[in-house]
Design goal:
The complex is a heterodimer. Chain A is α+β, with helices and mostly antiparallel strands. Helix content of chain A is about 15%, strand content about 40%. In chain B, the strands form 2 sheets. Chain B has a 6-stranded mixed β-sheet with strand order 2-3-1-4-5-7, with helices on both faces. Chain B has a two-stranded antiparallel sheet with strand order 6-8. The model of chain B has no long low-confidence stretch (mean pLDDT about 95). The termini of chain B are far apart. The chains are: A alpha+beta, B alpha/beta. The structure holds guanosine-5'-triphosphate (GTP) and magnesium ion (MG).
Chain lengths: ~80, ~650
């Protein structure tokens, strides 16, 4: 079985399924509403050393801050 | 009979305001980034002799509010009792958009029409939607449209009217969850049943929100059921979560998306997913940690160059025209006092200000281009890392850029920031950003004193202003308590703005400059003319203007300025353009200003005018968005900073022999 890793570990071009979101409930509900929730498939478009991760989820592009991307746990596809 | 109320609700940037403008014929601000509309706007639309009140709401991703603009939308939907809710859905991201739709359905809102907008973009992306099927599956009317092109608006109006008249049988679909979750929803519903709260909101919605630990609903339950009632419910939820080994909000959100995904399969399919290669490449460039900054520097340099290269010749020409007009008019006015008032006061003061309209218009044109193109959200991503070091979130760059146009909407746009601390700090430093009124003062003075280097000198004032704003943010954020919010922002599709919409848009935003010239600046010029001619003209030492100016002169002398600068700065508090008209009235002509001051003094005056105080309207906006204390503190802080910088530049300049 594939390992579960934080979103921040993925490389551009990789897709993954969201499995869990750590962090406070405010942060979590923010993410759900923007299209990042358990079961949703996301694809990493860009990622830079110090900057946010750009992903595609539910038909839209989102830029997710570095701190936040470490709290989104995903399973690689 | 009271007008029926139609609310426009939906995710940010889906085109609500575009639809609102098309329905009402108004010109509210449309832009290609999430969070353009931050307060509810009302307008009227007529159809078949009937009038409806349309309410444009700020965009919101869900009914759980995280920021003030979202709270405005949520409160209106919860308590505003709209007769029809037009839920605008972006056809290019239906999955995410329907999350809000499901919340709206769960909340039991009635009379819903779904406006499926941006169909043109969806088609381009190869997304196929069977609208009839979608309507059947969701249980409410769905109208496809491309609001930007004006397609489908007639159908939308008809659907709204039919729903408003109760001619449509609606049956909104409500998400279902796993049996275990459903059992808990049932259980909590039974606990709440029969209470006063249950008569106000649907039981199911209350139960789901409680399971998700929605803070507002928790407060509601506490209010109606008391502390014990709430506690017994929450203990139960804790037990459930323990059994699950997972937070319920996570479970519910996941299952909601699963449910939506199931629905969309019934009416939507993707053609060849032709990924947007161009957009990907542009993104890669614009948010790249190195190239992105180079691109940003080029973009803003380009904006500046554009405004000055095309604006200054036009300004010169207009100023010339006003002078000629004054010279021609003068001999036709017999009464000497009246001649002075009209030629020196009104034409010399107001005309001088008005001549800067081309620059203001071009600035708004360039800003509108950046906004419509989709650049704003990218700058926010690019700047996130740097701004954090100064205690600001990346998103706060958007209010700062908007401040280049006008600080009043810029201060209001801080509502989109999730965190109260971020909001206060961003608002605090915003007035340092030179607005279009100050652009006119900066270009006026730099043209007088620096001739062909004027654009460069003016640019240095902008750099100074941004540096002061960032430095101040760093300082102030140390004293405001609160935690900075995590960063997540949607990156909209790039759009090539149409020339027509840019022109309309720039005019809508720059016409205020003309209106102000005809009102506040006109009154100011008349007043200043009076002050500088009575009881005796300037030069005698007895005019009111000199008396007022001399009172402040000792302070002004610290930065090398005289009583004339004091008077103009004083009037500039009302509107910054008054600095130009006051100098125009007191000196009589730009040449006279050049003869009376050194370039160093001119530069100090430019810097001080830019930094010294928010105009009255901006102080009002800060007060409205926070409180009196914060507005007063901002004002006091700016006066202090402007004085220090004025004094520093003056003494540094002297020491360097300028
Ligand atoms: N391609 C396309 N773009 C559209 C359409 N309708 C609106 N837009 C663009 O979408 C962007 C957002 O439009 P707005 O009307 O400001 O969106 P809004 O929903 O009011 O956004 P917020 O106020 O931020 O919540 C603008 O750039 C519009 O030009 C459409 O039918 N097709
Ligand atoms: Mg809007």
């Amino acid at each position: 079985m594939d390992m579960i890793v934080p979103l921040s570990e993925l490389k551009p071009g990789e897709s993954a399924v969201v499995v869990d979101i750590a962090g406070g409930s405010g942060l979590r509900s923010r993410l759900y509403a923007m299209g990042v929730a358990p079961g949703v498939i996301i694809r990493v478009l860009e990622k830079y050393q110090f900057g946010p991760v750009v992903v595609e989820a539910g038909g839209t592009r989102l830029a997710v801050g570095k701190g936040m991307s470490a709290k989104i746990l995903v399973r690689r596809l | 009979m009271a007008m029926k109320v139609i609310a426009l609700a939906g995710n940010p940037n889906v085109g609500k305001t575009t639809i609102f403008n098309a329905l009402t014929g108004m010109h509210q601000h449309v832009g290609n980034w999430p969070g353009v509309t931050v307060e509810k706007k009302e307008g009227v639309f007529e159809y078949g002799g009937e009038r409806f009140l349309v309410v444009d709401l700020p965009g919101t991703y869900s009914l759980t509010a995280h920021s003030i603009d979202e709270l405005v939308a949520r409160n209106f939907l919860l308590n505003g009792n709209p007769d029809v809710v037009v839920n605008v859905v972006d056809a290019t991201s239906i999955l995410r958009n329907l999350y809000l739709t499901m919340e709206i359905f769960e909340m039991g809102l009635k009379n819903i029409v779904i406006a499926l907008n941006k169909i043109d973009l969806a088609e381009k992306k190869g997304i196929r939607i069977d609208v009839g099927k979608m309507s059947k599956v969701l249980g409410v009317p769905v109208v496809p449209l491309s609001a930007k092109k004006g397609e489908g608006l007639g159908e939308l109006k008809e659907a709204i009217i039919r729903v408003a008249h109760g001619e449509v049988e609606e049956n909104p679909i409500i998400p279902h969850y796993d049996p275990e979750v459903e059992r808990e929803i049932e259980h909590i519903s039974r606990v709440l049943e029969g209470t006063k709260l249950a008569s106000k909101y649907p039981l199911r919605w209350l139960a789901i929100k409680l399971l998700q630990r929605d803070e507002e609903v928790i407060k509601l339950v506490e209010r109606y059921l008391g502390k014990e009632g709430l506690e017994s419910v929450m203990t139960h939820i804790n037990e459930v979560e323990e059994r699950y080994g997972k937070a319920m909000d996570l479970v519910i959100a996941g299952q909601k998306y699963e449910f939506i995904d199931g629905l969309t399969h019934e009416f939507m399919s993707y053609g060849q997913a032709s990924g947007d290669v161009l957009a990907d490449q542009l993104d890669r460039l614009l948010i790249h940690p190195v190239y992105g900054f180079i691109a940003m520097a080029i973009v803003f340099y380009g904006v500046f160059k554009f405004v000055f290269a095309f604006g200054l010749p036009l300004q010169n020409w207009l100023a010339e025209a006003f002078t000629l007009f004054g010279n021609w008019l003068a001999p036709h006015i017999a009464n000497q006092a009246l001649r002075g008032l009209i030629v020196d006061g009104i034409i010399g003061g107001v005309g001088m200000v008005l001549s800067f309209f081309p620059l203001v218009f071009l600035l708004f044109f360039a800003l509108s281009f950046l906004e419509d193109f989709g650049y704003m959200a990218r700058v926010a991503v690019l700047m996130e890392g740097i701004l954090r070091k100064f205690g600001l979130p990346g998103k706060s760059i958007i209010p700062l850029i908007l401040g280049l146009g006008c600080n009043v909407p810029a201060v209001m746009s801080t509502r989109t920031l999730d965190d109260e601390k971020d909001r206060l700090v961003t608002m605090f430093v915003n007035p340092f950003i030179p607005c279009s009124a100050r652009l006119s003062v900066i270009s006026f003075l730099s043209a007088i004193f620096f001739g062909k280097d004027s654009a460069l000198v003016a640019a240095s004032i902008y750099v100074l202003a941004f540096a002061v704003a960032l430095g101040s943010a760093w300082l102030v954020s140390r004293f405001v308590s609160g935690e900075s919010s995590p960063f997540v922002i949607e990156l909209p599709e790039y759009l090539i703005p149409s020339g027509k919409s840019l022109l309309v848009h720039s005019w809508e935003r720059s016409k205020e400059f003309v209106q102000k010239a005809g009102t506040v600046i006109l009154l100011g010029a008349i007043f200043i003319w009076y002050l500088s001619n009575y009881p005796a003209p300037v030069g005698t030492g007895r005019s009111y203007a000199e008396q007022i100016g001399h009172f402040f002169e000792p302070y002004m002398r610290l930065m090398g300025l005289d009583w004339r600068a004091a008077v103009s700065l004083l009037f500039g508090i009302i509107a910054k353009e008054n600095v130009i008209s006051t100098l125009g009235v007191i000196y009589g002509s730009p040449e006279a200003i050049r003869d009376a001051m050194t370039p160093l003094q001119g530069y100090v005056l430019m810097a001080v005018t830019t930094l010294y105080i928010p105009c009255i309207a901006t102080i009002g906006a800060i007060k409205a968005e926070s409180n009196w204390k914060w507005a007063a503190l901002t004002t006091a802080y700016m006066i202090t900073v402007a004085s220090i910088i004025g004094i520093l530049i003056w003494h540094l300049g002297i020491a360097l022999g300028w």
